[in-house]
TrEMBL record:
This is NAD(P)H pyrophosphatase NUDT13, mitochondrial. NAD(P)H pyrophosphatase that hydrolyzes NADH into NMNH and AMP, and NADPH into NMNH and 2',5'-ADP. Has a marked preference for the reduced pyridine nucleotides. Does not show activity toward NAD-capped RNAs; the NAD-cap is an atypical cap present at the 5'-end of some RNAs. It comes from Propithecus coquereli. PROSITE patterns: NUDIX, NUDIX_BOX. The gene is NUDT13. It is found in: Mitochondrion.
Length: 288
């Protein structure tokens, strides 16, 4: 059903009649608080036209909406950004951000036009079709069998460590990126690797983060930190990591000016990857 709406502008326009619209302003979502929770209000086309009229906006703006999904019953969902200045926060809706930042054809320089669903942009002068780009990123938790390797960039919040991450270079397989990034960032040779999970990650642009476990040969565990990319990297024991998983975010500074290390929040695939390793270690240390 979604494929049909992306390929057929008339079908998409018709779906707006019975669809639901989520509103944004300069890429920030409009939220309502209710009983200490944030809810994203949905607006029907009629309500949306009323809102636009109330604020003196042209109903034509509805053409700027983008299709973001549908219900099992084929109720289409749309996002519409009412903000005029889109240079501010990119904290939401990767697709709206992509439209704001890809307005021109990279070959002719002409302004491109979004299709009704917002699933692509087309250059009217040469018919080149542009689709939203997603940059693949690998995140790798390296283990030597009993410890795992965590690292931090200087841009991370104080005390936070995570698994090694890196963008795939053009032409690389994911496996090649894992081996290259681990070699580049900590000077270790990956012996084996195993896929774990993936996550769409819209910060700073649209990336697809693919999480993997990797092992190094026992005895080949000497770390050489690439200080151009990382501030620090070290091996951590199962107990240290299990304790850190329970810490919620930045902790108070300890007397000796250090921060007990903590890990990315639960919402990140980095957290899930590290948690999966701790659970696997716990299971493997249980008596058979
Ligand atoms: N969701 C998660 O759990 C999670 C975990 C780790 C990293 N990430 C994200 O993955 C991304 C990559 O992590 P990193 O900073 O360690 O990457 P990295 O080690 O490749 O270093 C970043 C460098 O990659 C280059 N680069 C930037 N954008 C690129 C692109 N689109 N394609 C190719 N190269 C690019 C730049 O030179 C940049 O300095 C970051 O945006 C980070 O937010 C998400
Ligand atoms: Mg990196």
């Amino acid at each position: 059903y979604l494929f049909e709406l992306k390929e057929d502008d008339d079908a998409c326009k018709k779906a707006q009649q019975t669809g639901a619209f989520y509103l944004f302003h300069s890429l920030a979502p409009l939220l309502q608080t209710s009983a200490h929770r944030y809810l994203a209000p949905r607006h029907s086309l009629l309500e949306l036209k009323g809102l636009l009229g109330k604020f003196g906006q042209d109903a034509q703006r509805i053409e700027e909406s983008v299709l973001i999904g549908c219900s099992e019953q084929h109720e289409a969902w749309f996002a519409l950004d009412l903000g005029l200045d889109s240079s501010s926060s990119i904290s939401a809706q990767a697709l709206l951000h992509w439209h704001h930042t890809h307005q021109f054809c990279s070959r002719s320089g002409q302004p491109t036009k979004k299709n009704m669903a917002g699933s692509k942009r087309v250059c009217p002068s040469n018919n080149i079709i542009y689709y939203p780009q997603v940059a693949p990123v690998v995140i790798t938790l390296v283990s030597d069998g009993t410890r795992c390797l965590l690292a931090r960039q200087s841009s991370f919040p104080k005390g936070m460590y995570s698994a090694l991450a890196g963008f795939c270079d053009i032409g690389e397989s994911l496996e090649e990126t894992v081996r290259r990034e681990v070699a580049e960032e900590v000077g270790l040779e990956v012996q084996s690797l195993q896929y774990s999970a993936s996550q769409h990650w819209p910060f700073p642009n649209s990336s697809l983060v693919i999480a993997c476990h990797a092992t190094v040969k026992p005895g080949q565990t000497e770390i050489h930190v690439n200080l151009r990319e990382l501030e620090a990297a070290a091996w951590f024991s199962h107990d240290e990591v299990a304790t850190a998983l329970r810490r919620k975010g930045p902790n108070v500074q300890q007397q000796n000016e250090t921060f007990p290390f903590w890990l990315p929040p639960k919402v990140t695939v980095a957290h899930q990857l590290i948690k999966e390793w701790v659970e696997k270690q716990t299971c493997s240390s249980l008596p058979a």
